[in-house]
């Protein structure tokens, strides 16, 4: 009746169970099961249990199902993976797996999957595949084994062996038991993401199985029919599996798959066999997954148009979820050249959804779809509707709508007057929701085009004059605002808004005033009076005060020629990725790249500044957005051609003179290469791959080589370091015949590493987010590196791309270690020992005695020490067998001197390494790095 009464009752029960377990008389199996079951129930009520574990383990040896079941259940819920009982539990599980009793085997497999610890994975990862593919395993055992293996693979992929059983797992798709097939599809879908080529044979089997399900009547699969829909879960899983690969190469398989997809679309048109929501949910789940596969292949025009028409019917469905899903899928269809026109036919329905939908998330998807379907033929209508919607839009999505309107106005501007009018109208409506990126982009376009400046200035002036514009419209107004009005009138109008503007806008206005003095000397006295006013010279804002003082002095003391030179017209902005588009991508997240910057080259997009020359296949094509500035950025240099053998992609790079590093900045490049490229933070990427440390160690004493290689990708490195600067060339080779899509390599600085070392992008491999690397091709990326302070952990290299539709991601440690900035220093013996004694404090020395992992060759040791960055000093150590080195670690903040001594003992096959610096962490870190090389 109360919490206190419950606790009292539970404590009484626990005391009784404890006395039973401690009693002299051995408990029978039933009693032991009963008490263990009570303990489990008490634990699930939220009370701690600190005994009974051994009794639960003893139940595992019982031959009765009910007793064994409770034992496994208790272990799965209560036993910690680090428990000392794990060894006993593993022995019991091994016995049950070997018993060939299907019930006991399933209990054991369920326990392994539920606990899922690495210890269990190490113990059973090799046994479970054998059970899975054994010819005499029962169907229920196969099903449990497949799901258990999937659980272990997700927890510890390195423990699950690939090999001879791979092909046999694929053939489980032919199994007669639908439960086995369902479990096998889940397992194969996960495994093929890492090793797509090993599981490629699953395509034809999946198509065959899907065809049999789709073409069967519901009575044929009686046990697996859900509300008149045959095997809906299996159908969805098979369709998702097929999305891991490109379209089938075999014409017969492809034809059968197309027939399946057409059948699903046809069935969607049939009247429902049941009015229950479960029927429509199952039916629509298959339909939407089918449409996802059609979109993924993007190669069947007929199916794409049919999918679009089917989704169009859902746009006015009474179910909100269906309307949302239809809009979301149509956004992707709008980026396909085959279905773009079909999507446009639904423009009126989508506009109506934007106005009338009750759910804000559905309205947001409608706005996304309008953005995706926009081209030159409907740009004015869509921009007009989005501006109208902006007046009543939800605050949560206003900024996003503003960005989209700004991008579309630029992308499909038929003439500049429409573009300027649209942007000014956007400013009037959105006000504070117009971000700085929109301002910057408009200013960039207006500044870089002489033919648009006059109209823009005239329009802004008239807006201000009529007091119809927002105050923010003061900001982009040029100095020569409108030649039809005298300069004093222009100045008077601008200054009348001064006190109403923000501090940033006032600062811009002060700069505009000094330019007025240069262009229109008749305004000099008036403007100097404004600058001389106490409200300016004694302004509380230091920026405004400094500008007023400097501009007043400049206008008073400088001659006309000097003033004209100082206030010379700004040069055109260098063209780069639109800051508005970059911000929208950041808001929508990395997955939105394809929708925001799709590969469809729209023939209707604005080309009023001339076409763009086609680029080589290894360089991505320019963004389809309009080039209003007429300043297309030059494409990065083409990557070196791939060599004949896909397995040896980097041979040209390391054997020939190509890509010689140079530490000077490349033209039109920030000295550190820190361009306007958005980068994910450490929280956005996964942990480094297990072999990342081993790969990093290979590069401690060398600068060139293959950093990473698997069946899909080869990453090569060529780098050079000088003092605290470095330049690194990364070469990404596609070893397959299938194109990589959305290829995105990014450097990430974990923690506060950004304050210790800068790794900036000099030249990204491509200029677009949705980058592509063709099969057998190679692209190059340049990193410019600067060491600011001593650091202990390297930056991370995150590589993401899509292969055959499946996302691939790996994180490596970039081969940038502190010793790369080690400059060798020659020293006489006397200087060395004097400095050695000065660094005699315990925290300044690091020493390590370790066993040699390689043959102790003196020449190899010399080469490694030189590669490490140290100078080798001769005739310093009394023992000629020892090696002595010296160098200075160059960072921007300080220089760290370093002395080392390596003493080999050939008889014991041991080394003693002593290293002294003025900084303790650096000593220990360098000592560890160098010791790993021997």
Number of helices: 38
Which geometry do the CA atoms define?
globular
Count the beta strands: 17
Overall pLDDT metric: 80
What is the strand content? Answer: 5-15%
Provide a compact summary of the structure.
The protein has 934 residues and is an alpha+beta fold.
Give your account of this protein's structure.
The protein is α+β, with helices and mostly antiparallel strands and 934 residues long. Among the domains are: 182 residues, no CATH class; 126 residues, Immunoglobulin-like (Sandwich); 114 residues, TATA-Binding Protein (2-Layer Sandwich), CATH 3.30.310.10. The protein is built from 38 helices and 17 strands. A hairpin with a 4-residue loop joins strand 16 and strand 17. Helix 14 runs parallel beside helix 16. About 13% of the residues have low confidence. GO terms for molecular function: clathrin adaptor activity. One of its GO terms (cellular component) is endolysosome membrane.
